[in-house]
Write a structure and sequence with these properties.
InterPro entries: Anti-sigma-factor_SerPK, HATPase_C_sf, HATPase_dom. The chain is of the alpha+beta class and 172 residues long. The protein is built from 6 helices and 6 strands, in the order E-H-H-E-E-H-H-H-E-E-H-E. Helix content is 37%, strand content 24%.
């Protein structure tokens, strides 16, 4: 069974972080993430998206933040992708940005501690967290196990692919 992925791209405005949290929680619930874990999903997605919005606002205000939600057979994965190149010094616009500053990593650096308190909070909420630096920026991948039964799961598995992309306009 192929994983189903929903992609959300939004302008780097703090108001869109709430939308990202709501969409993530809805897709997680439909995918079969335990109700006990949904608050962790909301909080982790909020932290990751706030960090990306702050970095984009300072360095790439024209580029959207990308959020990918993947419902695989046994797990639910969230990826938050910023387009700020590694090594770009953060310019905090908010207190959250000042805490979540992202320095370049050395080989022996702990990625959780090197990325600041904001990402350390995410690591405390999510057991399976990976940070990947690419040429275009950081991909933060968080994975949660599925409990099995979910309201929308059987129909999504039997029907055609439900992959999609949504764009959130600046004034939305």
């Amino acid at each position: 069974m192929e994983p189903t992925t929903v992609t959300l791209r939004f302008t780097p405005l703090p108001v869109h972080v709430r939308t990202a949290r709501l969409v993530s929680a809805a897709v997680a619930r439909r995918s079969g993430v335990s109700e006990d874990v949904l608050d962790e999903v909301r909080l982790a997605v909020g932290e990751a998206c706030s960090r990306a919005v702050d970095l984009h606002g300072a360095h790439r205000p024209d580029a959207p933040v990308t959020l990918r939600l993947t419902d695989a057979t046994s797990s639910f994965t969230v990826e938050v992708v910023d387009l700020v190149p590694q090594g770009t010094p953060p310019v905090p616009r908010t207190e959250v940005a000042a805490i979540a500053a992202v320095p370049a990593l050395g080989e022996d650096d702990d990625p959780v501690l090197a990325h600041g308190v904001g990402l350390a909070v995410i690591a405390g909420l999510v057991d399976d967290v990976h940070f990947g630096h690419g040429q275009d920026g950081l991909t933060l991948r968080m994975t949660w196990p599925l409990t099995g039964d979910a309201p929308g799961r059987p129909g999504a598995r039997q029907g055609a692919s439900t992959a999609g992309t949504a764009q959130v306009a600046p004034g939305a």
